[in-house]
Amino acid sequence: MATAMQQRGSMQPYRGGSGYVARSSSSGLYDVLELILDKGLVIDVFVRVSLIGIEILTVDARIVIASVDTYLRFAEAVNRLDLMSTETQGLPEMMEGITEGGASNKTKGVLQGAKEALFGEEDEDSGDGERQGERRRSSSSTTRRRRKSGSSGSSGGGSSGSRSRSSSKS
Amino acid sequence: MSESNGGGVRYVYGVVRARRSSRLKQTGINGEPLKVVADGGLGALTSTVPEGFLEAGRDELLTHSAVLERALKKGTVLPMQFGVVMPDEAAVRRDLLKAHHRELETQLEEMDGKVEVNVKGIYSEPRILREALEEDGELRALRESIRDKPQDATYFERIRIGELIAECLGRKRAEDERRIVDRLLPHAVAVEVGEPVHERMALNASFLVEQRRQRDFDRALDEIAEGQSGRIQFKYTGPLPPHSFVELAMEAA
Fold first, then answer.
1. Which one of A25, A32, A142 would you mutate to disrupt binding with B, by most B Cβ within 10 Å of its Cβ?
2. What is the predicted ipTM?
3. Could you tell me the fold of the domain covering B115-245?
4. Inter-chain residue contact A35 with B243, CB threshold 8 Å
5. How many C-beta atoms lie closer than 10 Å to residue B4's C-beta?
């Protein structure tokens, strides 16, 4: 095994680089947990442990995105937009936005709700302190596309060989 | 909780190579020691959990992650999804290791020397809205038309504005995703592209990267991020065990 292996990065500062890529410990950890819940080997036959404290149900992520609330929020945002200002959003503001998912905390991404349920107030991105009361459904893997390096064009999904993804989501 | 003869319900964290069964000093859920259940050169990383173990919370998630993280430092590991529980050690051998021996072997080989890197990109909302306005005449006109009018008089216009922005964002997302993935893929073995989880997400992708090429990958991402500075903020998580690149067939294989 290569000695260049590093510890899982979420707890470490980003290695080298220009500083344009963000690494923050709690959101990095959150991304790992997202993968643990949604990916990895599954054996259908055996009981899956369910998470207490949040609902894990599948929902079409597009439903979350394309809702009337979202449209109205966009309209409000574009209305407020000061076109005379040529300032682009500074890094601190953008960092805040990374895990919020939307300019307004009213429509947080679904996983944000799950994250709060799991981690409560310890999040770095408490932002303006608004809490999401309702439990959101987390979007599980909807259609995933996989591509192998060297293949041209986009894939139609599905991996090579006879493996099919086991789909126990209970 | 019976410890004799491998009795006791087992929580399974992942699969590694192992020549023999063993008990590790490292602990898993509830502070129980990790036990490697070996069969045919494969080892399941397990620990004993209580009989009725059906619900878990934050601590268990964190422990699952920590066990895999540690395993990755030691060698190739195929991560289980969170929450796989098997009735006893014999079941682990029979229904996981034996039943899926060939697949697991193959995937261990495929994953040797490779890690997963998760990359997310988030749009700067002011920036992307500005772009939308610049590009879409209808949007500009609508925006003008509702200026200085009371909100209740402009409901449908605002919906239309939001729709146009959402469509524009969707187009940009598709294009940015394609361009970014195309630039990173040469430094990776494979990519799993996920659906965006909220409307400002530009990219949500996991890459399978060879460890010896990770520096190249990181540098390529740095360049992309610098070029998108002020427009897309990137978030990088890794190196990780290859959660997104392993799977088991429904039937034993």
1. A32
2. 0.86
3. Alpha-Beta Plaits (3.30.70)
4. yes
5. 6
